[in-house]
Amino acid sequence: MTQQNRVVLSVPYQEKDSAKALGARWDNTTKCWWIPTALDSRPFSRWLAGHALHQELAPLNKEKFDEYRGIGTPEVVFVPWNCWKCKQTTRAFHGAINRSICITHLFYQPHVIEELEKIRKEMGLEPFGCIKPRFSRTVGHPYVSQGCKHCDALIGENPLLEDFNEVFCSVDMSTYPYCRKISWTLLIPSTSPAEIGQSGRASVVS
Hints:
By secondary structure, the chain is an alpha+beta fold. It is built from six helices and ten strands.
């Protein structure tokens, strides 16, 4: 089964048995549930990753979006991140404007993630973890996050920002190969939940 023939699901732990009973499969490498694209996805609608992201992400109002767009061009920077749980090094991405204003949360949209996956492959980087809602003990509730590609542990916003700042302060960013400017058109928030849910591409599996 190739990765192109998969639809990734965002299944809470307590619902894994229900998903499995319907035919969902677990990928132990990427730590994600998935179904073949040939399988009818309607019974899995509540777990479609794009649908879950749409529900978890607060929509960005036009005024705030225009404010961000007026500041500068968004840029994605891939940084190494040492997992707090399995102690292995994974790769995470940080989104910023002028490398000073964090907008990573805006990158957690299906069409943006698809573009980041293309960029990641062009750069020859290893896969990054799934993008999905994860529970955080620090804040006491789940939020959409990146995960360790080895064990799926949540990559928190603050640790990711700290690792980005370390790279930013210790590396010549003019020659750092793992950053790329992206178009604002990719970050225009989606307006159709159905469209997002049908895409099934909100999480990266490689």
